[in-house]
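Fill-in record for Retrotransposon gag domain-containing protein.
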Amino acid sequence: MSSKKTARQPEDESPNLRPYLSPRMDSTNESQVPGTESYAEPGAMPDQQYQETRTPAASAQAGPTMPAGPPPPVPQPGPTPSEATGTARMLASLVNMLYMRQQAMTTSQQQMHNFMAQQARFQQEMYEMQARANRQKQKANPPKLYGHADEDLELWLFQIEEHFAAYTLEMGSNDSRFVDMVVPFLGVDVMAWYREFNLAMGSNPRTWSLFK
């Protein structure tokens, strides 16, 4: 008995299906072979294809991405010629001011030194005058010369010079200072003689040598 085969109804073809194309396995078109390193999905962008085709060795050599450092400093502009000239003038003015101040301090110190030296000389002179006055007080006042016949004129002159021994400069000077110091030790009669002596000298100095 012969069996009859029932004819199969033709299936409706799906509009989304397309006939299978066997890929070419030649080495000239590996980018279209699935499973290869250079394979790229159809419709992929060029950048995506480049990223997908990078080998692991190239990725390992690139290493981790380092963070970007701070931007380099912007170089500052230098001073202009006018600013440099102004700075030089300012420095010159400052140096001149310091020099003038130093000069003023030096002058002030010199004046102070001169003042202290003058004060020291004045104190020395005052000390000498005080010492001279003390020596003068320690000596007994010489007797007055009255002009009597029993008086020793040479002895009286010696006593006067000893009494005023601290005034040797005035004693030997060419003026009337020492004689004016001796006049208070003259008695009445000798004072009359001194008046005539003074009139005779006129404007000439009455020195101690002439008085004796």
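KEY FINDING: The two ends are 207 Å apart (CA to CA).
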